[in-house]
Design brief:
The complex is a heterodimer of chains A (325) and B (289). Chain A contains 14 helices and no strands. Chain A has helices at residues 6-45, 51-55, 65-75, 81-93, 107-142, 145-160, 163-177, 190-219, 222-229, 234-252, 254-271, 277-287, 290-318, 320-323. The two termini of chain A are 24 Å apart. By secondary structure, chain B is mostly helical. Chain B has a single domain (27-51, 71-288), classed as MetI-like (MetI-like fold). Chain B has 11 helices and no strands. Chain B has helices at residues 3-16, 28-45, 47-50, 82-117, 120-134, 140-149, 153-180, 183-190, 195-231, 243-250, 259-288. Chain B starts with a helix and ends with a helix. The model of chain B has no long low-confidence stretch (mean pLDDT 85). The chains are: A mainly alpha (325), B mainly alpha (289). Chains A and B meet through helix 1, helix 6, helix 7, helix 8 and helix 11 of A and helix 1, helix 5, helix 6, helix 9 and helix 10 of B.
């Protein structure tokens, strides 16, 4: 077939290319989800002992053989593994995540009810981390060598702070010594301050380092020189021209940032006794409540894949050069 | 991306930065990091040199003492000396961190080399496999491992090692690919060296050197993660003098005895910062060498 020519053909080609890429990305996402489901399904088979016993409260519960058999047939443990696997995949594809062993409720609604709290925490923390990182990066590139040194040292230390220690220290200072903020984050805005800070500060350390680096490179590049030559104000140069470049690597880090926020949420939600996915996951891990663990892992994987697609789109939005690829 | 890849990228950025300065000069931060690393090493190998007491020695009469002359870091609920425990705990943290790093790096080398050196099909397969592992971000893979094999020091160590492996693998693969297409490798091939000679004499040495940087950065990360698992009650358990477990024990008394949590945590932070600073310093030296 002849290549379509002319402006019309060019548009068609672009549309086809975009659609093709989208299809490839979606296919990849579906593959990863299937693989995550399979890996978790077969990994969980490695747990020693009868799963029916786990449902009935573990080996200590001394359940009768009749009760075990009843649970086995209720949860399908008596079926061949391949049947269980296919049933599980079929269920997952319709969004059914199974039933919790420990809580006697469906995993789907349980996980969904916890999702909002964690998303709120993560979004606030990511926003605050971006603001902190931007402030630190612009301040430390504006000042001299000392500002630079102070800025980069602060960032290295911030990036090294483990969530559990930062949270504990913040509680000691702000809740116990000063008594201004609650150590428990069950509701209200005041309760959000410390958890959000705990998650945001280490993240800001990472984002700040990468932003400062790229801001510096951008400020020395020819397009900034030409903007200055055109008579653009310092503020205009920094906030319009340089910042766009500086934010690119930080945007591409956001997928990773999300992952680290989820890990952080496990710790932070536990310390601040805050409801959410992280605490649900930790409880389920402690109780070996397998369906809940799988449910949370699946939700995180879906969100992670979505985040990766979103960061890609955001990078294209900010950097027109990428749209040509 | 994984934590490790972010760390490695930041290290690369910082050593190429204009402010990095000449490679030979030793910075204040590097000096301090070196001294602290030495302290940790002594504490791990011969803790009694730094803290002669017994980390598990109970003395109920001197429980909950705030930091004072006799007990620099204070005492815990059973009157155990926090400083002694922190020093003796170095052993656990370093051994757990190093073991996890060896596991992660070992798996990473195997996977990365497979993907980087063998054909396209292997590369594609390994890459998809890594992509799947990356969908369990951060501690998630470790938590999944622990739910299967149960909590404890050994499983927590393996769990941390496993969850860092994909990051190592991807960096090693990229490194191998870069080195493989470098001019000196091409030259060696043109000069008639066999495949194995090229691999052993040219490709491997140039790939392994950056692994020192990775391992240094990675060990800091592994220590923090292992401590996090202990803190969550999935790794070492109190009254073991492991840092994460000490913090976990201190949680109950946080309203009255801040020092029980503060000092073990401070050592985790200092260790992590030391790993970052030293990793970057090695990176810079190798790049400018």
């Amino acid at each position: 077939m002849a290549e379509p020519v002319g402006p019309r053909g060019a548009t068609l080609r672009v549309v086809l290319r975009v659609l093709g890429r989208l299809a490839a990305r979606l296919g990849g996402a579906v593959f990863v989800l299937w693989a995550v489901a399979s890996v978790t399904f077969f990994a969980v088979r490695l747990i020693p002992g009868d799963p029916a016993q786990a449902v009935l409260g573990g080996p200590g519960s001394q359940a009768s053989p009749e009760a075990l058999a009843a649970v086995s047939s209720e949860y399908g443990f008596d079926q061949p593994v391949i049947v269980q696997y296919l049933t599980q995949l079929g269920r997952l594809s319709t969004g059914d995540l199974g039933r919790s062993y420990a809580l006697n409720m469906d995993v789907g609604p349980l996980v969904l009810s916890q999702l909002g709290s964690t998303v709120l925490l993560a979004v606030l923390a990511l926003t605050l981390a971006w603001l902190l990182a931007l402030a630190l990066a612009t301040w430390s590139t504006r000042g001299g060598t000392i500002a630079f040194r102070v800025g980069s040292s602060l960032e290295i230390v911030a990036a090294a702070l483990p969530h559990f220690w930062l949270a504990t220290s913040l509680i000691v200072v702000f809740s116990i010594w000063l008594g201004v903020l609650p150590p428990i984050s069950t509701s209200g805005v005041a309760g959000l301050v410390l958890p959000v800070l705990t998650l945001a500060v280490p993240l800001a350390g990472f984002l700040g380092q990468i932003m400062r680096e790229s801001l510096q490179v951008a400020l020395e590049s020819p397009f900034v020189l030409s903007a200055r030559a055109r008579g653009e104000s310092e503020r205009g140069v920094r906030w319009v021209h340089a910042l766009r470049h500086a934010s690119l690597p930080a945007i591409s880090l956001s997928g990773w940032a999300f992952g680290s926020l989820i890990s952080g949420a496990v710790v932070v939600e536990t310390i601040f006794a805050r409801p959410g996915l992280g605490r649900t996951l930790l409880n389920a891990v402690t109780l070996r409540d397998v369906p809940v663990v799988i449910g949370v892992v699946m939700i995180v994987a879906v969100t992670y894949i979505l985040m990766t697609l979103l960061t890609d789109a955001a990078s294209r939005l900010v950097d027109p050069r990428l749209r040509l690829l | 991306m994984s934590d490790l890849e972010v760390q490695a990228e930041l290290a690369a950025h910082s050593s190429q930065s204009r402010q990095a300065g000449p490679a030979r000069r030793l910075g204040v931060a590097e000096g301090a990091a070196g001294v602290f690393a030495l302290f940790l090493l002594v504490a791990a190998v011969a803790p009694t040199l730094l803290a002669p007491g017994d980390p598990l020695h109970i003395d109920p009469l001197s429980a909950f003492q705030s930091p004072n002359f006799a007990h620099g870091f204070g005492t815990d609920e059973s009157g155990r000396d926090i400083y002694t425990r922190v020093v003796h705990g170095t052993q656990y943290s370093l051994v757990i961190g190093a073991t996890a790093t060896v596991i992660g790096l070992g798996l990473g080398i195997v996977l990365g080399t497979l993907a980087g050196m063998l054909g396209r099909v292997v590369d594609f397969t390994v890459n998809r496999f890594l992509e799947v592992l990356f969908a369990f971000p951060g501690l998630l893979l470790a938590l999944l491992f622990i739910v299967i094999f149960g909590p404890g020091v050994a499983t927590a160590t393996i769990a941390v090692g496993l969850s860092t492996a994909p990051g190592y693998a991807r960096i090693i693969r990229a490194q191998l690919r870069t080195v493989r297409s470098a001019a000196f490798v091409e030259a060696a091939t043109v000069l008639g060296r066999t495949r194995w000679q090229v691999l052993l004499r040219h490709i491997l040495p140039n790939t392994l050197a950056p692994l020192f940087v990775l391992a240094t950065l990675g060990i800091g990360q592994a220590i923090v993660w292992a401590a996090t698992l202990s803190y969550l009650g999935l790794g070492a358990e109190p009254p073991t003098a492991e840092w994460g477990a000490m913090l976990s024990a201190g949680r109950t008394y946080i309203t009255s005895a801040w020092w029980m949590s503060f000092f073990p945590g401070l050592f985790i932070v200092l260790t992590a910062v030391t790993a970052t600073v030293l990793g970057r310093s090695i990176d810079r030296r190798m790049r400018h060498a």
